[in-house]
Amino acid sequence: MLPGILTWDAVQPLLNWCDAVEALRRGHLRPRPEQGDLLLGPEGARLLNRAAWIADLGFVIKGDSVVAANAARGLPTVQGAAMLYDARTGAIRAIIESRLVTQYKTAADSVLGASYLARADSRHLVIVGAGVVAGSLARAYCAVFSALERVSIWARRTPQAQTLAASLGDIAARVEAVEDLPRTLATADIVSAATFAREPILRGAWVRPGTHVDLVGAYTPEMREADDALMARAAIHVDFRDTTIDRIGELMIPIASGAIVREDIRGDLYDLVAEGRGVRDVDGITVFKNGGGAHLDLMMARYIARTVERKSRT
């Protein structure tokens, strides 16, 4: 077992986005997972436990407390840790601060999907949202898509977009905050949305042919970021069928309205990685729904632990 808790401050400098994306790609060459969630506690102060097992990778349990009132106390809203268990012996291999696992797996999940669905020569990335996840997405995309020249950040509150843009001065692409989302989308190659929207903020009429749309934010049956028109125009893939199609409004709502049918969802990351080739159409739109899941926590926790183990031996 690695000593102590592997914290963000200690471990994040050892990680890189290209390796994180590759860890998820390799993880999807393994068998599909067994996983389950447990939610306890009252509204506003809950404990979410997520667990997964993958043959030859082992087990993970990630437990996060989610306490809304902590924001007013100057404390993190989400706090927790992931425990990684050895595949062979069942021994605890590492305890990892959960935000390290969550931030890296969320952005790497989206970028892995984009590596199959977006054009490799994409030059303009639009980020919708200005939170922590949005920053991770900007860094991950720029690390993997080397042709990116411009990153535009839009948020409902422009000062938040400006603050995030200012914090990304170390990436190679030119970063700017924008106020006119439809106009910005007219030149986008990749759009990545990471918001808490319950009503669509991305309209099909705004997205040009050849664009890849990465939907990250929605995670409940009531949430969505893309309208029916966009979903109806797109070739849709998800990260994992079991954690998205019947659980997230991004898919449930347009299926219920008749805008799409279940068969319009062409596959998930297991399918894309197994096929080993991109599904790109310069005249069409691709959509990737990032739904998360404990299996991704397991893949990322293993990458983090292995990275720390290698560094400790040098």
From TrEMBL:
Q: What is this protein called?
A: Ornithine cyclodeaminase
What SUPFAM superfamilies would the database entry show?
Answer: NAD(P)-binding Rossmann-fold domains
Q: Name one GO biological process term.
A: carboxylic acid metabolic process
Question: Which organism encodes this protein?
Answer: Paenirhodobacter populi
Similarity comment text for this entry: Belongs to the ornithine cyclodeaminase/mu-crystallin family.
Q: Specify the domain of life of the species encoding this protein.
A: Bacteria
Annotated GO molecular function terms are: oxidoreductase activity
* InterPro entries, per database record: NAD(P)-bd_dom_sf, ODC_Mu_crystall, ODC_N
User: Which cellular component appears as one GO term in the record?
Assistant: cytoplasm
